[in-house]
Amino acid sequence: MVTQLGERFTHLFLRYMPDAFVFALILTIVAGLGAFFWLDASFLEVIQSWYNGFFDLLTFGMQIVLIIITGFSIALSPVVNKAIDHLTQYIKTPKQVYFFVIFIGMLLSLVSFGWIVITCVLARELAMRIKGINYPFLVACVYFSMNTWVMGLSSSIPLLLNTEENYLIKASVLNQVISTPYTLGAFLNIGMILLMVIVAPVLMLLLVPKMVENKELKDLLKHDDVNRENSIKEEAESLKLPFKSWSDKLNNSVILQMTIAILGLTYIVYHFYTKGFDLNFNIMIFIFLMVGLCLHKTPMRYVISMKRSSRNISGILFQYPFYAGIMGIMLYTGLGAKLAEMLASIATIESYPFYAYITGGLINFAIPSAGGEFAVVGPSIIEAVKEIGYGLPADEVNAMISRASMSIAYGESLSNMLQPFYLLLVMPVMASGIKLQARDVMGYLFIPLIIFFILQVIMVLYIPI
């Protein structure tokens, strides 16, 4: 029955879910109309806010592109391929693939949401080697596995709260930093991690669709993509001149590439020695680059791997500015803050985590970036919590602020199951060479969304921080 219900929702999404770019265009109009009619912003103010935000995510967009192609390049290395070969000796059935992909994906996302790329490559390789896998459902499993990133080491909201002289302190919204034991190390967050890592793989197994005909990866691949390409090493060899040359020696020099890699690895050791376990986008990209250099050994092999990794990133390159434009409308017209104030105004000491959670989920559709969203709604939510907790000890107020902030993060992450923005991280790898759109995937996530919405609301309301 559960499987049939999942298939019905999938059919509905196929009929009504537009492409991620169309989704962005519709949200742009909705946000603009909201600012125009609700806040009485002029047409020109809305247009200016849209334009001012349009390029706010350029740095973030380039970081995402580099995370994808550098991670994909690592996955194309001989070492990783041998590891996957070894893994397939133990994973032999589709259900084992679904379970393993979600479980490993959630563990990887606890380190960094950029590591979803590694999960993508692993899932795609398993789909090529094991028969009977419904590939769109497998893509949904990969996307769902990303949910744990807001609970892990790269979660932007708790890292912001623990940053000295952050913008909340400068604006006197907070008096001091809130350390990660209140957020990432809290009982609530640990419980949320256990919920996702243990329950999610089991739940998705209950939703496995029965139909796999014409749904396997080999069925979806275009005819000319079915045959595997030459290996990267073989392609590098084929590019050599028929006679000895200095250019070929440099292109295929192990010493040259390893010298640069050693320099890079030296900095990585220095970074973590001096800053502790400080994970951010830039150091993650740098690590991926240096590891890729080591695994591919020569400049020419690395160039070929990066070329192959970069084939399908057009969706990210042109769609991020449109989502940044939506963020601009929400931020510069005050629409996002107004929504947060409205929800916060009806919150009580018993219900404030629920309204913070709902705020995170709703605003995510317009600002699909936890850090960007928190910049818009965080101050209003924190001020409301401080007012609700007036007169309580400082530690208790900090705990309330932490619960509200993490509730925003959890709501933001789960609502991605209806928001195809971060599917752009998955599709360059998973949809390479096939015709696969968001509507083919998102329907499988509706039931998990409902179930985890109920479970997470109960947890943010009742589990001690």
What features would you highlight for this structure?
465 residues, mainly alpha, globular
The helix content is 55-70%
Oligomeric state of this protein = single chain
- Protein structure class: mainly alpha
Question: What value does the average pLDDT take?
Answer: 87
The total count of helices amounts to: 25
* N-end to C-end Cα span: 37 Å
Query: Structurally, how many domains make up the residues?
Result: 1
Topology:
Blueprint lengths: L1 H15 L3 H19 L4 H12 L3 H18 L2 H10 L6 H18 L4 H14 L5 H10 L11 H6 L5 H4 L16 H20 L10 H4 L11 H7 L7 H6 L2 H22 L5 H16 L2 H11 L4 H19 L2 H11 L6 H12 L6 H19 L5 H21 L8 H8 L7 H5 L3 H17 L3
Helix pairs in contact: 2-3, 2-18, 3-18, 4-7, 4-16, 4-17, 4-18, 6-7, 6-8, 6-11, 7-8, 7-23, 11-25, 13-17, 15-16, 19-20, 19-21, 20-21, 20-22, 21-22, 22-25
Task: Describe the protein's architecture and organization.
The protein is an all-alpha fold. It has one domain. The chain has 25 helices and no strands. α7 (116-129) packs antiparallel against α8 (135-144) and α7 (116-129) runs parallel beside α23 (423-430). The chain starts with a helix and ends with a helix.
